[in-house]
Specification:
The chain is built from 15 helices and 18 strands. By secondary structure, the chain is of the alpha/beta class. The chain folds into 2 domains: 145 residues, Hotdog Thioesterase (Thiol Ester Dehydrase, Chain A), CATH 3.10.129.10; 301 residues, Isopropylmalate Dehydrogenase. Helix 6 crosses helix 15 and helix 8 runs parallel beside helix 9. It is elongated, with a radius of gyration of 29 Å.
Length: 474
C-alpha cells in the first residue's frame, strides 16, 4: 500500500497579510550538533569537545547558535511563504545557549510588505521549552508571486560516522593501564615499524624490536623517528627474527607479540612449533573487533584470519577464545551468534549442523561463559526486526556480541565489508597462544594498528589481575 502523497504549497505575496505568522519546533540532539559542525566547518570545542566544554562558560556541550537561526530559514523556505522564497537578509540576536535536549519553537510574523519589489520583512523569535527567549531579530525575503504546489521530497537518512570518537572510546578502555612489553618481529618496513612506534607513543606498549639493526635504524631515519631508549635485538633475517621474538615471549621477557614485515606463515610456524613455540592446549584463532557506526556495540568476529575450514572441535576453541576476549572487555555474558546462510538446521549445510552441536555443547558445559544460539543468518544475528519477522525468539538474535563464521573466507569477507563499506573501526588479535599476538597488515590504518595493541594490553592486564570473587546463586 502506497503512502498518501504529502504536498508542499507556498503562500504568494498577494495572499500574505501583515500580522500573519508561522512556527515550528525542533529538539536539539547530539547528532544535530555533529552534523551541523560537519556541514558548517564550525569545530569550536564548545560544541564538540566534552572535556573542553566542562571548563567553558556553560559547563557543558552547547549547540551552535546558527542551528537555531536555521529554523527561521526552514519556516520561510518550506512553510511560509514557502517554495519560491528568496532570502535577502537576516539580523539575529542570541540571548542564551541552546543545550542538548532543548526544544526551540521558532516563529516568524509579517511586519511589513513592499509592493514595488515583493519584499516582506518578518519579526523572528525563538523560545525554549521553559518559555525563555533564545533568539530574536528580523528576516527579509522576496516572496513568490506565483502559486507552487509540489510533492514533498523527504530528506535522505543520514548516518554520522564518527570514527575518531569511536577510536577515543576504545582507547579510554586502556586509560591508566601500564604499557606491556611487546616483541615486534622483523619491523623492516615503514608500516611495520611505524605501527610499533605509534602504539608506544600511545602508551600501550614498550616495544622490543627484533630484526636486523641496520635496516631498522635506516627505516627509522626515513620516517624521521628516534629510536632512543627503544631496545633492539639484532637478528640476521626474518626467520631468525620470528624465532627470537617467539623465544622472548616464551621465556616471559615479553608479554605480547606483534608481526612486523615478515609473512604471517613465517611467524605463525614459529608460534605453533611444538618444541619452541607458544602453543597451549587451546586452538589458536583470530578475532576481529569491529566498531560499526550502525550497530549499538562492538562486534567480535571469528575466525577470519587463521583457521581456514575449522572442524567442530576447532570451533569450540574458536568460540571459547572469543568469549574470553569479551570477558576481558567487560562483557560478562557475551551473546554468541553462530552464523550460516540460513537459520534452520539443514543436513546439506555443514555449518548448520555444527551450530546446532555447538549450542548443545554449551548447554552441557563444554563451552562456558557465553550465551550461544545458531544457526543464525547474518541478518537474524544483528537485526531485531529481521529476527522478529522470521519468528526467531532468542536472547542472541538481533543483539549478538560475537559472530562465529563458518570458515575463513566468509569471515574475512564479512570483516572487510564492514571496514570498507560500513566505515567500521577495526582491530584484531590472535588468541589461544601463551601471549596475545597482533597481526598487522600493510593495508591497516594507524588506528587499526594501535587499537589492536590496545586489545593486547587489555588481555595481558586481565590475565595478570587476580580472579574476581563470585557469589553462589542459591
Amino acid at each position: 500500500m502506497n503512502r498518501a502523497t504529502v504536498w508542499i504549497e507556498n503562500v504568494t505575496f498577494a495572499e500574505i497579510a501583515i500580522g500573519q505568522s508561522a512556527s515550528l519546533s525542533r529538539t536539539l540532539r547530539p547528532e544535530d550538533i555533529q552534523l551541523f559542525a560537519a556541514l558548517s566547518g564550525d569545530l569550536n570545542p564548545t560544541h564538540i569537545d566534552p572535556e573542553y566544554a566542562k571548563s567553558s562558560q556553560f559547563r557543558e556541550i552547547v549547540g551552535h547558535s546558527m542551528w537555531g537561526g536555521a529554523l527561521f530559514s526552514a519556516i520561510l523556505g518550506t512553510q511560509f511563504p514557502g517554495p519560491g522564497t528568496v532570502y535577502v537578509r537576516q539580523n539575529l540576536t542570541f540571548h542564551r545557549p541552546i543545550l542538548i535536549g532543548d526544544t526551540l519553537t521558532a516563529r516568524v510574523v509579517v511586519r511589513n510588505k513592499f509592493t514595488h519589489n515583493h519584499h516582506i520583512l518578518f519579526d523572528c523569535t525563538a523560545y525554549n521549552q521553559d518559555g525563555l527567549l533564545v533568539i530574536d531579530g528580523e528576516a527579509e525575503v522576496i516572496a513568490p508571486t506565483e502559486k507552487v504546489r509540489r510533492p514533498l521530497i523527504e530528506p535522505p537518512e543520514i548516518t554520522i560516522s564518527d570514527k575518531a570518537r569511536r577510536y577515543q572510546h576504545l582507547m579510554s578502555l586502556v586509560d591508566g593501564l601500564p604499557p606491556i612489553r611487546m616483541a615486534v618481529a622483523h619491523p623492516c618496513s615503514e608500516y611495520a615499524l611505524l605501527g610499533a612506534l605509534e602504539a608506544a607513543d600511545a602508551g600501550l606498549i614498550t616495544p622490543v624490536l627484533v630484526g636486523p639493526r641496520p635496516r631498522i635504524e635506516a627505516i627509522a631515519a626515513t620516517l624521521e623517528r628516534s629510536l632512543s631508549g627503544i631496545e633492539i635485538v639484532d637478528t640476521p633475517h626474518s626467520h631468525a627474527s620470528a624465532e627470537e621474538a617467539v623465544r622472548l615471549c616464551r621465556t616471559g621477557a615479553c608479554a605480547a607479540l606483534m608481526k612486523g614485515s615478515l609473512h604471517t606463515d613465517e611467524l605463525m610456524s614459529e608460534v605453533v612449533n611444538k618444541e619452541r613455540g607458544l602453543r597451549t592446549g587451546r586452538r589458536i584463532s583470530h578475532v576481529f573487533m569491529a566498531d560499526v557506526p550502525t550497530y549499538p556495540h562492538p562486534l567480535l568476529i571469528s575466525d577470519a584470519a587463521i583457521n581456514i575450514e575449522p572442524t567442530l572441535e576447532e570451533k569450540v576453541d574458536i568460540i571459547q577464545n572469543a568469549i574470553d576476549l569479551a570477558h576481558a572487555l567487560g562483557i560478562a555474558e557475551p551473546k554468541v551468534a553462530i552464523l550460516s546462510a540460513v537459520e534452520t538446521v539443514n543436513p546439506k549445510i555443514r555449518s548448520t549442523l555444527d551450530a546446532a552441536a555447538l549450542c548443545k555443547m554449551a548447554d552441557r558445559g563444554q563451552i562456558t561463559g557465553g550465551l550461544l544460539d545458531g544457526p543464525l543468518a547474518f541478518d537474524n544475528a544483528i537485526s531485531l526486526v529481521a529476527a522478529k519477522v522470521k519468528g526467531i525468539r532468542s536472547a542472541v538474535a538481533g543483539n549478538a556480541d560475537i559472530l562465529i563464521v563458518p570458515d575463513l573466507e566468509a569471515g574475512n569477507m564479512l570483516a572487510k565489508q564492514l571496514e570498507y563499506l560500513a566505515n567500521a573501526l577495526m582491530s584484531g588479535i590472535v588468541l589461544g597462544a601463551r601471549v596475545p599476538i597482533v597481526l598487522t597488515s600493510r593495508a591497516d590504518t594507524a588506528e587499526t594498528r594501535v587499537a589492536s595493541c590496545a586489545l593486547a594490553q587489555i588481555l595481558v592486564t586481565a590475565k595478570a589481575a587476580p580472579p574476581r570473587s563470585t557469589s553462589a546463586v542459591g
